[in-house]
Design goal:
The protein is α/β, with parallel strands linked by helices and 327 residues long. Helices cover 29% and strands 17% of the residues. The strands form two sheets. The protein has a six-stranded mixed sheet with strand order 5-4-6-9-8-7. A three-stranded parallel sheet has the order 1-2-3, with helices on both faces. Strand 1, helix 2 and strand 2 form a beta-alpha-beta unit. It binds NADP nicotinamide-adenine-dinucleotide phosphate. NADP nicotinamide-adenine-dinucleotide phosphate binds next to helix 2, helix 3 and helix 8.
């Protein structure tokens, strides 16, 4: 997020990084010094970008909001709360108008999928989605990336790989039908539930039926998704391709015979959502199949958070409330 604020020339007078007590005083690239959270240190901000887990967001997002900032939260803590808009910049930016101090950034797999679905939804409606994800390890965090690389290195050198810590099983040279975690008694992971619930909230349509299987694959960055879309009205693959070619934030790569389709390694480092393999589902006359790929750390997380901050600023939706000056 810090890199994106710089890259996109976010018009901030001052940027202050916060982290846990462990990191207070640490100097980041660019010379910024990490501060700790307390009632005084959080005063005087217009916008606060949060990515510190649900518990920290639960405790500190309302405090930042009460101190005058608009919080853009990356955790899942507030996403389904009624008074919190869940926003993707290309899909439902108007939802920002209703914010009450906290705005939620969606889950990464949901984010990239709805960017590609929105133009199809507007044209033909969506009745049902069947989604299978192929999610990169960086979505789990830095330690999961190290786990994949360490295990791969060991296996390539004929050494016993380190035991899995971040995942239930070895991720190197493997595919895990288990992205996220299983809550007590649920046969779906929380990642699958997020994909279902957040998609409905962002598209504003609780009637969409959604089936999801979230899978972790040994890719460092870039989530891929096979999505089957059943539309309400007829929609040809040609028309879908045309709509997507003009959709904001989308790039269509769809010449499969020439080897042109979205790839995780090409999407890594990019802010757009890539769509290809758009074709008629031979099993249903109003269904299309497609392949959707994006950088899970950029459009799937940081890029959208910064885009939301930009829109809040451009539309005058930041409070610009001055905190009382220190005595
Ligand atoms: N689409 C999305 O929006 C998306 C995508 C990926 C992840 N996420 C969410 O983002 C969150 C963070 O993920 P991550 O991979 O970035 O984790 P991470 O690398 O572990 O970073 C967490 C950060 O939060 C800070 N932190 C932890 N506890 C804190 C506390 N009590 N007070 C202040 N700061 C605290 C940490 O500080 P220290 O450096 O001092 O430890 C660290 O800087 C998670 O909630 C995750 O679900 C969202």
């Amino acid at each position: 997020m810090l890199a994106l604020l710089r890259e996109r020339h976010f018009p901030a007078r001052e940027v202050v990084p916060f982290a846990s007590a462990r990191s207070v005083g640490k100097e980041l690239d660019g010379g910024l010094q990490v501060r700790g959270l307390d009632e005084e240190s959080i005063k005087g901000f217009d916008v606060a970008l949060f990515s510190a887990g649900g518990a920290t967001s639960g405790e500190w997002a309302p405090r930042f909001a009460a101190a005058g900032a608009v919080v853009v939260d990356n955790s899942s803590r507030w996403r389904m709360s009624e008074n919190v808009p869940l926003v993707v910049s290309e899909v439902n930016p108007e939802a920002l108008d209703t914010h009450k101090g906290i705005v939620a950034n969606p889950n990464c797999s949901t984010m990239q999928m709805v960017v590609a679905l929105k133009p199809l939804y507007d044209e033909a409606g969506i009745v049902r989605l069947v989604v299978c994800t192929y999610q990169a390890v960086s979505g789990t965090g830095r330690r999961a990336v190290d786990e994949l690389l360490d295990q791969s290195h060991a296996l390539l050198h004929d050494v016993e790989p380190p035991a899995p810590e971040q995942y239930a099983h070895r991720i190197a040279f493997n595919v895990l039908p288990h992205a996220g975690s299983f809550a007590d008694g649920d046969d779906h992971t929380d990642e699958e539930r997020k994909l279902i619930n957040e998609t409905r909230k962002i598209l504003g349509d609780p009637s969409i039926r959604i089936s999801a299987t979230c899978v972790r694959v040994p890719v460092v960055t870039g989530h891929s998704e096979a999505v089957n879309v059943q539309t309400r009205e007829p929609l040809s693959p040609e028309r879908a391709r045309e709509l997507l070619a003009h959709a904001p934030g989308v790039i269509v790569l769809d010449d499969p015979a020439a080897g042109s389709y979205p790839l995780a390694i090409d999407a890594a480092g990019r802010d757009e959502v890539f769509v290809g393999r758009i074709r008629r589902d031979p099993g249903h006359e109003r269904s299309l199949d497609m392949w959707i790929v994006a950088d899970n750390l950029r459009k799937g997380a940081a890029t959208n958070a910064v885009q939301l901050a930009e829109i809040l600023h451009e539309r005058g939706l930041l409070g610009a409330r001055e905190a009382p000056s220190p005595a």
